Amino acid sequence: MPLRLHHIVFDARDLPGLARFWAEVLRWRVLSEREREVVIGPDEAAPVGICFMPVTDEKRVKNRLHLDLTSEVEDRDDEIERLLALGAKRVDIGQTGEESWVVLADPEGNEFCVVRPKVTLIS
Fold this sequence. Notes:
Blueprint: E1 7-12, H1 15-26, E2 29-34, E3 37-41, E4 49-54, E5 67-69, H2 76-86, E6 89-90, E7 101-105, E8 111-115
Parallel strand pairs: 1-4, 5-8
Antiparallel strand pairs: 2-3, 3-4, 6-7, 7-8
């Protein structure tokens, strides 16, 4: 059997807090919560989830890997505002202002993007 992606893993100082943030962002739920591991996903049968593991050090540099999120075209601005209300922050990683995405960071500083829907890329 070939390898499959099981979890995307985030290092976190506040496991339950960061897990709840991302569960709200993705409209997922907490599937498992232990002292040293919290897992979120759309449901228990989902092929991939996000796992949060403890670290003591603070994030200091730009992520080498990040998530790109998207929505329907008409919902994009409202979704960005919802993410900001949940605790995301706008961050500057050198964008010019002409990009088709918005760069945000979660409460622990992990960057992610809200990109325009793929349907807008083909028209």
